[in-house]
Specification:
single chain; Glutaconate Coenzyme A-transferase; three-stranded mixed beta sheet; 4 helices
């Protein structure tokens, strides 16, 4: 059974570590904020100038002036702070962010990512994604394994404009977890969703994949 968005981001939250500074990209990755393990101190950073994001607010606690980079209302944990976007990008470009969790439209078999533009769509610019994939110590992608038309999103070469090359360390989809094997320059499937088979993952992936000898369940 493929995981839903909540299941994907719950699995992504298992990659957090105490004391980490983490940037959550727009869309699905923002849900990771709801799954930070109890007792763990993680500082969530938003590139519009916020360090210390908490979970999404309840309806009666919404502050319209407290938003993340995707313009969603958020909360702040004890000790959170606000600053300019210039300071925020200095954190990112200076290598001070431990982990970025991003969405993607395409990921290539060697770890390239396209996540900012579809040709023909009016977009003002790439935004902070370019800085994140270049300046953050580790980058994880959370996304559905296939697009809305059922076509693979993990492909030999990206067809959309690139955000970064050979920069993705892990991909977590509704079907599996894949970790980049730098020696082979390919992703290795290490975990699989409950009741999903290796054959299903292969059928829904056009990229070359490696498989761990001891696949474990993403639910473990």
């Amino acid at each position: 059974m493929a995981l839903d968005r909540d299941g994907i981001t719950r699995r992504a939250a298992r990659e957090l570590q105490d004391g980490f500074y983490v940037n959550l990209g727009i869309g699905m990755p923002t849900l990771v904020a709801n799954h930070v393990p109890d007792g763990m101190e993680v500082w969530l950073q938003s590139e519009n100038g916020l360090l210390g994001m908490g979970a999404f607010p309840s309806d009666d606690a919404v502050d319209a002036d407290l938003i993340n980079a995707g313009k969603q209302t958020v909360t702040g944990v004890t000790g959170h702070s606000f600053f300019s976007s210039a300071d925020s990008f200095a954190m990112i470009r200076g290598g001070h962010i431990d982990l970025a969790i991003l969405g993607a439209m395409e990921v290539s078999q060697r770890g390239d990512i396209a996540n900012w533009m579809i040709p023909g769509k009016l977009v003002k610019g790439m935004g902070g994604a370019m800085d994140l994939v270049a300046g953050v110590k580790r980058v994880i992608v959370t996304m559905d394994h296939c697009n809305k038309k059922g076509a693979p999103k993990i492909i030999p070469e990206c067809t959309l404009p690139l955000t970064g090359t050979q920069c993705i360390d892990m991909v977590i989809t509704d079907l599996c977890v894949m970790e980049m094997d730098r020696d082979h320059n390919r992703f290795r499937v290490t975990e699989i969703a409950p009741d999903v088979t290796r054959e299903e993952v292969e059928a829904k992936t056009s990229a070359e994949l490696l498989f761990a000898g001891d696949l474990v369940s993403m639910a473990d």
